[in-house]
Amino acid sequence: MIDIKVPTIGESITEVTLLKWVKPAGSYVERDAVIAELESEKATFEVNAEQAGTLEHLAKEGDTLNIGDLLARIDETAPKPANAAPAPIKENKAPTPPPVPTEAPVTAVSNEIKATPVASAMIADKKVDPKSVKASGHQGKILKEDVLAALSNPGKIAFKGTDLHSRNVRAEKMSNLRKTISRRLVEAKNTTAMLTTFNEADMSAILAIRSANKDKFKEAHGVGLGFMSFFAKACSIALSEWPTVNAFIDGDQLLYHDYADISIAVSTPRGLTVPVIRNVESLSMADIEKKVAELAAKARDSKLTQEELTGGTFTITNGGVFGSLMSTPIINIPQSAILGMHKIQERPMVVDGAVVVRPMMYLALSYDHRIIDGRESVGFLVRVKELLENPAQMLMGRDPVKTLLEL
């Protein structure tokens, strides 16, 4: 018998949670096949079979296990079933969840919602929001009766899995990741002198650049041109000019970083993760976008490594994707500052004495006042605003005209 133990995954991690068994008990598994998924306080990772054989489970899904605990056994002497197909080395990847829709469909059933043809026609004809319909069909399919029930109770919506007037209370065990998020956020609030300063940026120039170049950019680089590359590049320049914002407190010392490793906050079904883009100051816009796409995909599939989740010097979080207009983000300790992006919204602005409509975004910089003073925090945020409103300055970090005139 081969013992499969919970592997060591980091010096500070002592326990993990068994998320799920990928291979059922008693099944024959090939060597290196993924048999289980474990979750630590920082990431999710896979456990592979060390030998081919019959699998025996020694823990249940949801169990908390210590590093080194027995997870499973494999009987390598068991004969391989005659009808067993060869298994690939990596398999059963976690499915990528569907993207969060920005607007709820109100006149038809989207491809993500299953309904019978009659129910679909009724939803379209009566302009019913499919999300307000409680599905009773097989595998969550909406039936004609479900639509009629929704129409008979206009404006009344039952929570998922319950009926109208429900008083149900559900208890779920906190995951290791959620426990870590909770602990670190409270620690940040209790151990830092956190303050937030605000500004706003006119996004007209960036929107114009994206509109004019997005197709060519994707054709040339194989990735879309998003907002994050502009913000990451602007922050890397501003961090080089305001080094205190990029520094940590370590006891009675200040640790300054002569590089910009920027953490990008990514929301996943299991909680918030902050993978790191290394040396942003040395990357092109395309390099940044490729890295953002890569890390976001890994975060959704719970494939981020320990190295990809540690070591950032500054964080950017984008609440605008969820519609947030303004917020005060919490510092990602041991970092000293975090920049919050928000929703781009057209607002009346006074430009040269005239009222014009401009696409504006509020910016929020939360910072540790123990190390960063008002001058540094405001100066940093004003510089980010300047770079966003004048993207040409990102090319050399200065105003091209002033550079030309040596001013």
Describe the overall structure.
This protein has 407 residues and is an alpha+beta fold. The chain folds into three domains: 2-75, OB fold (Dihydrolipoamide Acetyltransferase, E2P), CATH 2.40.50; 94-171, no CATH class; 176-404, Chloramphenicol Acetyltransferase. The chain has eight helices and 19 strands. The strands form five sheets. Strands 9, 12, 15, 16, 17, 18 and 19 form a seven-stranded mixed β-sheet that branches. Strands 1-8-6-3 form a four-stranded antiparallel β-sheet, with no helix packed on it. Strand 18 (345-351) and strand 19 (354-368) form a beta hairpin. The N and C termini lie far apart (76 Å). Mean pLDDT is 85; it is low at 87-109.
Short description:
This protein has 407 residues and is of the alpha+beta class. It contains 8 helices and 19 strands.
Compile the SSE list and pairings.
Elements: E1 2-5, E2 15-21, E3 28-29, E4 34-39, E5 44-48, E6 53-57, E7 64-66, E8 70-75, H1 117-126, H2 144-152, H3 176-191, E9 194-202, H4 204-221, H5 228-241, E10 248-250, E11 253-255, E12 262-264, E13 266-268, E14 271-273, E15 276-277, H6 285-300, E16 314-318, E17 337-341, E18 345-351, E19 354-368, H7 374-389, H8 400-404
Parallel strand pairs: 12-16, 16-17
Antiparallel strand pairs: 1-8, 2-4, 2-7, 3-6, 4-5, 6-8, 9-19, 10-11, 12-15, 13-14, 17-19, 18-19
Helix pairs in contact: 1-2, 5-6, 5-7
